[in-house]
């Protein structure tokens, strides 16, 4: 699976449906620098969608957004035209940066050997300013789209806007980590099948994919029956995430495709939570040790615990993002049915109490 950071760059090529289109047919104000490092020969060498394919992808993207917000035909056409105009221009203006980044990522991802540390650092350093231009573009289009929505759609839109903002923020943080050399090999490189079959590689892959036990034995996915006391706080929290997603799937009666989407979101957020834990592993262990061995005052102990809570804080934001994104998979009809079922259940309970 392509990493979160690269996914956000690919989103600029209209291969993602998480961003919000614009309503106006204005050219992009997020122009790329005039002195592009890539030559025309280099661009003709790499992978890039044709103009016709780009237009088709952008049109479908706009139509999905229109379906999501149930826009009227006239507004649907405005969104379609504006999306093709604005984002098509953005791709042309930024192609000299986007195409080499995309191709180099694939080369690192699919190489026979893992990329060198310096190679990853340089790639992330070049990707960051491109992502910043994408963030500006997304903010502009989000603001413009907000103006055309009817009031009854505003709450749904704001949830989507939050999801977009969190996704871009996460991508930026990930690229900064890569630039500093803080990354796991599996985030960049997909090992050949023959290597993934070896016991050592299999164990490493399972660990990086989200198995969070602290045992020296082969890691396994924690389930609801695992005592919370035997896991670190984040591992225990992730078991609750599993239960939440199962509840949402059941509540809205998701079909196969929706279940797959929900599970993919769960895997993505769990991987980010584990990466956060691993990044601050030494700090967390030190604070835990200080709490266990503290002989100072209650105020001192409270301060140490507050520092630990602060380190775990981003995990709460990730769970809020998970809730928003997993519940946004439900259609309007599914949400109505779920609300009706809830009201019916509440009415039955009230009737029972009255008897």
Overview of this structure, please?
- By secondary structure, the chain is mainly α.
- The protein folds into two domains: 185 residues, no CATH class; 133 residues.
- 72% of the residues lie in helices and 0% in strands.
- The chain contains 14 helices and no strands.
Task: Please describe the topology of this protein.
Layout lengths: L3 H8 L28 H6 L5 H19 L3 H38 L6 H32 L5 H26 L5 H4 L4 H4 L2 H10 L24 H20 L3 H24 L1 H12 L5 H30 L4 H23 L1
Helix pairs in contact: 1-6, 3-4, 4-5, 5-6, 10-11, 10-13, 11-13, 12-13
How many distinct beta strands?
0
What radius of gyration results from the CA coordinates? Answer: 23 Å
Global structural class:
mainly alpha
**Number of structural units classed as domains:** 2
Write down the overall geometry. globular
Termini separation: 56 Å
Mean pLDDT: 76
Low-pLDDT ranges = 1-27, 197-203, 208-231
Percent of residues in beta strands? Answer: under 5%
Helix content: over 70%
Order of helices and strands: HHHHHHHHHHHHHH
Describe the largest sheet: none
Number of helices in the DSSP assignment = 14
Précis, in short:
The chain is built from 14 helices and no strands. With 355 residues, it is mainly alpha-helical. It folds into 2 domains: 185 residues, no CATH class; 133 residues.
List keywords for this structure.
355 residues; mainly alpha; 14 helices; 72% helix
């Amino acid at each position: 699976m392509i990493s979160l950071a690269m996914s956000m760059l690919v989103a600029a090529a209209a291969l993602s449906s998480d961003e919000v289109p614009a309503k106006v047919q204005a050219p992009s104000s997020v122009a790329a620098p005039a002195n592009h490092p890539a030559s025309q020969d280099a661009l003709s060498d790499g992978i890039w969608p044709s103009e016709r394919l780009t237009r088709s992808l952008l049109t479908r993207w706009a139509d999905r957004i229109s379906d999501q917000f149930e826009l009227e035909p006239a507004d649907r056409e405005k969104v379609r035209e504006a999306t093709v105009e604005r984002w098509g221009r953005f791709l042309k203006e930024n192609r000299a940066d986007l195409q080499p980044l995309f191709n180099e990522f694939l080369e690192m991802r699919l190489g026979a050997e893992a990329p060198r540390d310096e190679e990853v650092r340089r790639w992330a350093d070049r990707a960051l300013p491109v992502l910043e231009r994408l963030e500006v573009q997304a903010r502009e289009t989000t603001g413009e789209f907000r103006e055309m929505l009817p009031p009854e759609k505003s709450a749904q839109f704001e949830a989507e806007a939050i999801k977009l903002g969190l996704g871009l923020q996460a991508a930026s943080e990930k690229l900064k980590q890569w630039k500093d050399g803080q990354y796991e090999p599996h985030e960049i490189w997909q090992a050949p099948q023959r290597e993934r079959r070896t016991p050592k590689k299999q164990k490493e892959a399972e660990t990086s994919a989200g198995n969070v036990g602290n045992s020296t034995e082969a890691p396994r996915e924690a389930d609801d029956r695992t005592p919370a006391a035997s896991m670190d706080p984040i591992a225990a929290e992730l078991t609750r995430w599993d239960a939440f997603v199962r509840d949402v799937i059941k509540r809205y009666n998701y079909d196969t495709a929706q279940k797959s989407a929900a599970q993919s979101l769960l895997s993505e957020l769990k991987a980010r939570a584990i990466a956060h834990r691993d990044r601050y592993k030494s700090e967390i262990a030190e604070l835990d040790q200080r709490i266990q061995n503290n002989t100072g005052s209650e105020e001192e102990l409270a301060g140490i615990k507050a520092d630990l809570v602060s380190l775990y804080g981003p995990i709460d934001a990730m769970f809020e993002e998970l809730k928003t994104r997993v519940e946004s998979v439900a259609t309007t009809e599914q949400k109505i049915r779920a609300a009706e079922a809830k009201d019916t259940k509440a009415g039955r309970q009230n009737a029972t109490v009255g008897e």
